[in-house]
Amino acid sequence: MGDASQIHFLRSGNLAHKKAMLGAKAVGKVPPKSQQQDQLDSLLQQSFNVRRGSLADKLKMFDDVAKNHQERMANNPFHSSFDASKAPRRLSKDDPNYGKPVAGSLSEKRGLKAAKHVNAEVVLLCDMIYQEGQQFEDGTAVISFGELFQIYTRISNKVVGMLLRARKHGLLDFEGETLFQRRDDDVPITLLKPIKAIRDELNADKEFEVGICHKATE
Q1: In terms of DSSP H, where are the helices of the chain?
Q2: Which of 62, 174, 195, 201 could bridge across to 130 with cysteines, CB 3.0–4.6 Å?
């Protein structure tokens, strides 16, 4: 191997081959030129195959992304490439999956997590009413909206929303469609069930549906 080709081999060759060649040269056992050329050709071919394979993988990945994007746009009625013949069948309002995210999707996971969180907040709200309000022998309690608002807003700013949800599930009751601070401070909020029954009922929930934090028992 000439000086120029030897320098090129040392710069571009495999580290192990470099060490082997330099070690052989040091002891006077340099491989024949034909063997050195074969090693160099092999290294060049390996390098070419790696680069070619990497480029092919990138092209395939790009094609897959572009294909998926085109399919999504074909199903998007607001896009110029919308194709009604390829659009998925519209769900009927009577379909059990109507208004629900695709099963297994990230939207469904976020919805289930939110339903579980709301369920826990309803339990906390009922506990707060029982602990801070006037308790009765049957396990229920009553508290004014003004007092509950001052206490619960230190924990959450969704007190009215939680009250409406708890009333929807038959856990408590109050007069009026909704409640406003100051105007409805004297409105009593009453637990309709003993606090132990409310805790057991809500804590028994293990499975949730998107948008539904609790299904009231009969």
Answers
A1: 3-12, 15-26, 33-74, 106-132, 145-152, 159-168, 195-203
A2: 195
For the stretch 162-215, pLDDT in tens is 899 889 888 999 998 989 988 999 999 999 999 999 888 887 766 555 555 555
Question: Using N-to-C axis directions, what is the helix angle for 33-74 and 15-26, rounded to 10°?
Answer: 170
| Cα end-to-end distance, the chain, whole Å | 91
CA distance 127 to 49: 68
- In whole angstroms, give the CA distance from residue 3 to residue 62: 43
Cross-strand bridge partners of residue 189: 143
CA distances from 158 to 23, 118, 165 (A): 76, 10, 11
Q: Which two tokens stand for residue 127?
A: 């506990």
